[in-house]
User: Fold these one by one.
Assistant:
Number 1:
Amino acid sequence: MTGLVLKLGPKERVLVNGVVVENGDRRTRVSILTPDANILRLRDAIHPEEANTPVRRVCYIMQLILSGDVPYDEARHQVMQGLAPLQSAFQDALSRDILSSAQTLFQDRKIYPALKLLRQLLPREEVILRQAAG
């Protein structure tokens, strides 16, 4: 059996193809077998007012695709435009690899894995922005 396995905590909510699903009172594992399903853990969701940094903005746009609020074809240009300047902002090899992989996954319409990778840059972005402000 292949696909995505979600491990959900009690009462945890997840968005699957635009539908909010809430887990019961116990931890559980759910296997998503449909390869192109759009999945978003609501605990990880970035709210519109939190999309206030370059990485967060790109993540937010990807979330809108996953939630079904914006079609991929409409958001593609915004995501690609948002990813381009990040290559120069992140100087370390690991961050650049993450960006490159996220971009490839996004272009292959694998939005959830691309978003998951891109979220790894949030703590790194915070450090860069703190250094620039200080």
Number 2:
Amino acid sequence: MNKKVFLFAITLGVTLFFAACNDDDTIAKPEITILELGEGDSHGNDHIAKVGGELHIEVEVVAEGKIDKVQVIIHPEGEHKSIIEHGEWELDTTYTKFSGLKNTTFHEHVDIADWAEPGEYHFDFIVTDMEGNQSSAESDIEIIEE
């Protein structure tokens, strides 16, 4: 009988040990803070970019599970005239140069096509860590004529 109680106690202890460890192993999703989003030349934060210019993006990223990739998506919001030759301007770019970092300040300038239609656009910033956790931050931006 003592042997059965002893084996039960060991099995229970090992089970509780691994259950407790699993709760502690949860990796938090990446944290994203948009610091600046605006016209490239001025490094502004007015959420405005010019047709044919650059959009300045500065975002603080903290990823306990280490960054795997960063994706920047910009697409038209509302009604835009479609320019038949080019279609609507939009951007979908994935950055892997930050891979393996826990913390970084993402600072990039993206080109706005000279044929982009002025108007309202939606900006999405998505971070996926090496654990598969994903977070996003979004904002509206306006593209204006130069």
